[in-house]
Fold this protein.
Amino acid sequence: MGTQLLNEQTCYERLRNWIIDGTLQPNERLIELDLAARLGTGRATIRTVLARLEQEGLVVREPNRGARVRFVSPEEALEILEARTAIESLLARFAAMRARPEDIAQMRDLLAQMHACVEQGDLVSYSALNTALHRVIAEAARHRTAARLLETLGSQSVRYQYRTILAPGRPATSLAEHDAVIRAIAVHDPDAAEQAMRAHLSGVCETLRRLKQGH
Amino acid sequence: MGTQLLNEQTCYERLRNWIIDGTLQPNERLIELDLAARLGTGRATIRTVLARLEQEGLVVREPNRGARVRFVSPEEALEILEARTAIESLLARFAAMRARPEDIAQMRDLLAQMHACVEQGDLVSYSALNTALHRVIAEAARHRTAARLLETLGSQSVRYQYRTILAPGRPATSLAEHDAVIRAIAVHDPDAAEQAMRAHLSGVCETLRRLKQGH
DNA sequence: GTCTACAAGATTGTTAACAATCCTCCTACA
DNA sequence: TGTAGGAGGATTGTTAACAATCTTGTAGAC
């Protein structure tokens, strides 16, 4: 597998993934020549990619001092989650208005799998399914502006997403909350869906706040 | 005033302003050499600035075909307003929790000026004051994540912000709604503040929907 | 032993030139 | 008359070299 020549968009996606999956760690310096060599492209491309990632909140650049992976503090992670609550509640509302039968079937399928995971104590798969479910809801809402905001918020806080589900009693609660959200969407009740999603994510916020206190 | 040499940040801000204030019109092509000459910098700088503005939603770039000012359709403007509603409600909630006496005084001052504008029928000044008031509320919330989202949303939809206030009966209603928001913030009632802000912006959304139907 | 000054290396910022691509307009041909 | 093809110009994409800035390590003064 030789090093291919990559265009800007591909470089952007790869670098973004490296930051999100932790290949590049928070506060790690991003040296242009380094990245250019690793991605098989020139410095100019890396430069514009870094600018984009800064605008997206994944990277910090300082004049004459280069770029580094942005470190998101626990306080910031909470802020991000609060903002997500606002956006996802909106998306749940629209999903209740615009979801098609296929969308709802997919949600129920994922929910059933999540149920199985909790019974088996497989919290890693549960987290993945949870992310997938939220994505399906976002897509069912057919609201690109909100979906876009959510995606950038999500990418900034991936490192904190596994924490809350580990709190004692959380899995069962979380499952019930998701159930309420999907039931409201299935009967096309926007108010109930928004309310249920807000309740769900407020619960997550609260858990995260308590976790922060503990440590 | 000779052409100064400008660094990236300055170029970014200037170009951004040109787009927001309409100096550069929607769908207008952004030619790198052109902008470089106008801003007194090189193509490389312009290139990264355009990448940032694309990520911010103010510019669209197509490979090998350059960049243009993004045209925001009325449908999208509505989506943006809906997202703003979610974010600003959150900010109102936090403003109610964290506003200091100075913040509240500033809000009341702006509200009084808005009152005067409505009486004199000066809707242009009213719009400006309206923007300023929302900004003060956002700052009083001390929630940088939400504030940042709001700023990018706002910049995308400036072209539509003057429309709704022109609807018959809107100024008086708008004034009353702002009054309710600020009263809730002043007595530090987060639920009421969030609710009042949501009601206010939902009203704006509704007006915009009706305006769209009309035309 | 600690601090300052300075030199060397590393990294970013800027410029210019070249290559690749796209767009426009003109011509030739059916 | 209308359409395919191609030449030329305009614009973007890429590369390399150079300039400016920062960082690091070392030597010398106190």
Notes: The first helix of chain A runs from residue 8 to 20.
